[in-house]
Input
Amino acid sequence: MKGVFKVNGRTVDLEFHAAETLLNVLRSSGYTEVKEGCAEGQCGACVVLLNGVLVNSCQVLAASALNMEIVTVRGLGTLHDPHPIQRTFVETGAVQCGFCTPGMVLAAYVLLQHSPDPSEREIREALDGNLCRCTGYVKIVQAVQLAARRMREHA
Amino acid sequence: MSEPRWYYPDKIDEAVELISRDGVIPHSGGTGILRGSMKNVKGFVDLSCLPFHFHHTHGRVVELGACVTFSEAASYLNSLRGECILSKTLGSAASTPLRNRITLGGSICLFPPWSDLMGPLLALDAEVELVGKGCSRCTIEEYTNESEIRRGTLITTVRFKLEQWECYYFREARTFADHPVFTLTLLCMRDGDRILKFRGVVTGCVGRYMRLNMVEELLVGSSIDSIEPARIVHGINVRFAGKKSKSMSPEYLKHLVFVQVERGLADLLGR
Output
């Protein structure tokens, strides 16, 4: 089947199988920043924003996301103009293998939109769907706290 | 596998007609569909254009649309005055991105063993409103137990009374993000030192769920001082399937239920 998606502000026409997940459709269309981890909705490597809501793209059938606004981590910032959250992840050493990072950054982005000054507990709760097997989460939490502070200062 | 067809009806009648066709299934959040086999699916009926996405309260009755997600339901119930067990259980079920996708209607329809929704709904004596052939309203218990009611119908609304229950909820899981092997819901309403109402439900056991009717009969009308939780729990005849869990035998799970009911009663009775 064919469908129109709006990915990172651009409208794209894609052809895909009717029972295909959004994860597979995005990855096969070049959006490889959306990572495939467990493919069961447990690890959060594949999360995207669907109309502003954080979802596991492996748990979304692509045909149910037609005409919706999809944001991947590439939609937040670029290599030369990173989002403050992306910048603080690098600065605090919150990135090791980097596989979970797109999902972590998006989950943190949603949190900071609703709660600009989150407690550590709120940060950990907001990241409850994102697993990291490298860092032990301490640096990730620090990165979100630092990003929150900078975003408040520049608000 | 032949390619299934997608339908996007904006009229309820049209959706009902579509799901009556062989191999055509309703799609709301899709998380349950992706866990099952899609081998025999010939079509998906997307429910997002139908008026099943709402939440409101009439007096003390809460009504939630079938396409409301766990996150939305938890957030709405949190905003209401008074504590509702569902705001806690739905707010901590699965993980944030999954809660943003799992819908009430889908969870009721599929009743996955790990559901954090069904125990509280059964304990609250919730009702569902349906469209399609057959009855238009039934209790959640009737819906769960009678396959005839489920066939050819769509859930539109979940309804329950907002009452001043004291609540105890337990999910037996190895980590917070894990699927629970069983859940226990206890609701208690007191008048001074007497138990006015009591309800208990275990999910994940043989028969999908079990209401703790025996405990309810023993407790209702009793004075709190006369209740001995340790004695009551051993009369609970809950059973678990043999291969429920690799690391937990049915006997072990039954014992865990006893322990949790005892703890729950002690908690609710203020011991």
